[in-house]
Amino acid sequence: MTKHRFLPALPLLTVLVMLGPVLAGLWGTVLPAFGHFPVAGLTGPNLSGFQSLLDWPGLPRSVLLSVFTGFASTLIALSIVMLVTAGWSGTKAFQTLERLLSPLLSVPHAAAAFGLAFLIAPSGWLSRLFSPWLTGWDRPPDLLIVNDQWGLAMTTGLVVKEVPFLLLMTLAALGQAEAARSRTIASALGYGRVTGWLKTVFPRVYAQIRLPVYVVLAYAMSVVDVAVILGPNTPSTLSVQIVRWMADPDLALRVQAASAALLQLSLVIGALVIWRVGERAIGWLGMMWIAKGNRGALDTVAAGISLALATAAALAIFLGLLVLLVWSFAGFWGFPDALPQSFTFKNWMRHSEGVLEAVGETAAIAVPVTLAALILTIGCLEAEYRYGLRLSNRGIWLLYLPLLLPQTAFLPGLQTFMLTIGVDVGRVPVMATHLVFVLPYVFLSLADPFRAWDTRIGTIASALRASPDGVLWRVRVPMLLRPILTAAAVGLAVSVGQYLATLLIGGGRVQTLTTEAVALSSGGDRRAIGVYGLMQTSAALLPFALALLIPALAWRNRRGLRHA
Amino acid sequence: MHDGLELKDVTIRKGGNVLLSLSRKIEPGEVLSIMGPSGIGKSTLLSFITGTLAPAFEGEGRIVLDGNDITEVRPDKRRVGILFQDDLLFPHLSVGANLAFGLASGGSKAERTAKIEEALAEVGLEGYANRDPATLSGGQKARVALMRMLLSEPCALLLDEAFSRLDADRRAQVRSLVFARAMDRNLPVLMVTHDAEDAKAAGGEVITLGTSTPTGEAP
């Protein structure tokens, strides 16, 4: 019976668990940023951190890189998704694309980035496929494709990974936007597919996916693992530089890192403001475009290009995973051979011990974190059902807050904060930090199906004299088994993919598949990267497979739940 | 013990506007039918009686069942049974497990199984215990839903458009079955419907709401 007093407090607890570390992290950033860092013997406030940051010659370039890669990748990914949805939604081609892209959502960023690098590098698969018969190369050309100084490879990597995310968000929004009916009307009025969709459906769909788009922008501007793998080095993006300073044994550099973290935060806030202004401008231009009444002359071209790009994005991930697989089993593999001369298990044997340890660590973190997130989420949703404690619109923003703030703005600060109050880094703090990122995704994934459950079934069950807990455990949870397992799979995938939180809050001592894989990137051992990248991908994908399989088996004799 | 279901000065409001008011006692074995167009708050009245009123509505007045005021009692302790227009059988449970969910606790496993078989036999569904509810016809599902509710030994029965999804010939059959079983158990029955046939078949008093004012002013 304690649960009844406990349940109404769960929403508040959830908000605390989610925002506590964020606030602590911001606090731990602001103080050192202004020169106050007693652990290193520094007392402020002063502007020395900002001063030395400004004196760093790489600053303008790394700021520019962060801003450019963020805007470019978000704009390109959003345009591809909008145009491909406009041109193809409701068609067979779109269904195929949807089916291809959905499982790709859970592929960790690092694995996708490695795969892309192995495809497009001078000695990558693409160059091998066309050499020497077309290019005449018998050795890898001396080109800087990966880690190029403009961050184009990094931008490509981000686009490839964000297209599936934005597409799935768009699909969820389409259902509520009465898209099919609007398109029918628009085409009856003589509008082409793409133009008609952009003029009628796009405004409603965009309003629904606005927050996810902001998340993509904030993420792309401050991502670390993808930037380490694909991004430029001289200088790197601001976020990568912050992490380097944090890793420096010289504690004084942390002051500079904290100042840079605040700069990173203001860059992201500024970018979001600019994006918002851009939305207004697009809206205004769109109204003029609508008023003109063009029926769309370039529709076919736009639809064709967008489908080609979306397919290329899907292929980049698929082929990337395939090339990781080939490398992980590769014996000697000379250039320009398209395949290795021999295949061997030696790479896997050689890394088996390290991989297994990393798998153990990854699971030891991901499983409890996901369970905690599920309990908090189901508790919040159940409290909403029983007591009407529903999150307002502002509450939704709270959920998105940890995803909108750049990780580099508060994770270094969180590490500093823990150092200041004397908490040791390690696995438990890492778990608490993972929960900050896992919770919003689990909540967003489960909320809709949980709320869509027919509450009359609850009325019937209580009329049958089942207690509120009985209704929850004996009826609602079993009926919602599939969405609950899917939410769990999402949570596990998010935890598995966490790089920065594991690295900084674990103090380098917590070694998961992701931290190990990213750490390998500087060494360039492609066989090792293949092994770790594949294991990382499997750790994220396997739960999704189980989330499909378990309900199908458990309810194999229950037709009413087959599509639930 | 059987003293019927009494609604004392019950008023349902939404945003301060009165949807309906009712003060009436339903004797054991009596059927009271409430008729009226949709949106008038008939179903809302029933959710007030089951204790599951949505937050957008306010209910006022007392509900007395067999002499006990149940207005503040938790839904699962009220002993008020309800049937909706959909059967709402639990899709994850077999037909037998659905009935076991309803069956009041207690008794050995064999006794419980026997009771469930007996209930199935009572509505002509012998041997259906292991079936997936999704494989049953509409009329069969309605009968299982009725027996599930009756096995929980309610002291009153509410019918929320309970027959409106059934096709014409099934409808009369299921309807007379429900009324007969409720009369057997001497239950007070409150039925809301928009179908005059249902109200006529019930044989009891009929209250018609909102005929002149479809927005739902009090009668």
TrEMBL record, chain A:
<feature type="transmembrane region" description="Helical">
    <location>
        <begin position="397"/>
        <end position="422"/>
    </location>
</feature>
<feature type="transmembrane region" description="Helical">
    <location>
        <begin position="211"/>
        <end position="231"/>
    </location>
</feature>
<feature type="transmembrane region" description="Helical">
    <location>
        <begin position="528"/>
        <end position="555"/>
    </location>
</feature>
<feature type="transmembrane region" description="Helical">
    <location>
        <begin position="251"/>
        <end position="275"/>
    </location>
</feature>
<keyword id="KW-0472">Membrane</keyword>
<keyword id="KW-1133">Transmembrane helix</keyword>
<feature type="transmembrane region" description="Helical">
    <location>
        <begin position="100"/>
        <end position="121"/>
    </location>
</feature>
<feature type="transmembrane region" description="Helical">
    <location>
        <begin position="296"/>
        <end position="329"/>
    </location>
</feature>
<feature type="transmembrane region" description="Helical">
    <location>
        <begin position="428"/>
        <end position="447"/>
    </location>
</feature>
<feature type="transmembrane region" description="Helical">
    <location>
        <begin position="363"/>
        <end position="385"/>
    </location>
</feature>
<keyword id="KW-0812">Transmembrane</keyword>
<dbReference type="InterPro" id="IPR035906">
    <property type="entry name" value="MetI-like_sf"/>
</dbReference>
<feature type="transmembrane region" description="Helical">
    <location>
        <begin position="484"/>
        <end position="508"/>
    </location>
</feature>
<feature type="transmembrane region" description="Helical">
    <location>
        <begin position="63"/>
        <end position="88"/>
    </location>
</feature>
<feature type="transmembrane region" description="Helical">
    <location>
        <begin position="150"/>
        <end position="174"/>
    </location>
</feature>
<dbReference type="GO" id="GO:0055085">
    <property type="term" value="P:transmembrane transport"/>
</dbReference>
<keyword id="KW-0813">Transport</keyword>
<keyword id="KW-1003">Cell membrane</keyword>
<dbReference type="InterPro" id="IPR000515">
    <property type="entry name" value="MetI-like"/>
</dbReference>
<protein>
    <submittedName>
        <fullName>Putative thiamine transport system permease protein</fullName>
    </submittedName>
</protein>
<feature type="domain" description="ABC transmembrane type-1">
    <location>
        <begin position="59"/>
        <end position="274"/>
    </location>
</feature>
<dbReference type="GO" id="GO:0005886">
    <property type="term" value="C:plasma membrane"/>
</dbReference>
Automatic annotation (TrEMBL), chain B:
<dbReference type="InterPro" id="IPR050093">
    <property type="entry name" value="ABC_SmlMolc_Importer"/>
</dbReference>
<protein>
    <submittedName>
        <fullName>Putative thiamine transport system ATP-binding protein</fullName>
    </submittedName>
</protein>
<dbReference type="InterPro" id="IPR003593">
    <property type="entry name" value="AAA+_ATPase"/>
</dbReference>
<dbReference type="InterPro" id="IPR027417">
    <property type="entry name" value="P-loop_NTPase"/>
</dbReference>
<dbReference type="GO" id="GO:0016887">
    <property type="term" value="F:ATP hydrolysis activity"/>
</dbReference>
<dbReference type="Pfam" id="PF00005">
    <property type="entry name" value="ABC_tran"/>
</dbReference>
<keyword id="KW-0813">Transport</keyword>
<keyword id="KW-0547">Nucleotide-binding</keyword>
<feature type="domain" description="ABC transporter">
    <location>
        <begin position="5"/>
        <end position="218"/>
    </location>
</feature>
<keyword id="KW-0067">ATP-binding</keyword>
<dbReference type="InterPro" id="IPR003439">
    <property type="entry name" value="ABC_transporter-like_ATP-bd"/>
</dbReference>
<dbReference type="GO" id="GO:0005524">
    <property type="term" value="F:ATP binding"/>
</dbReference>
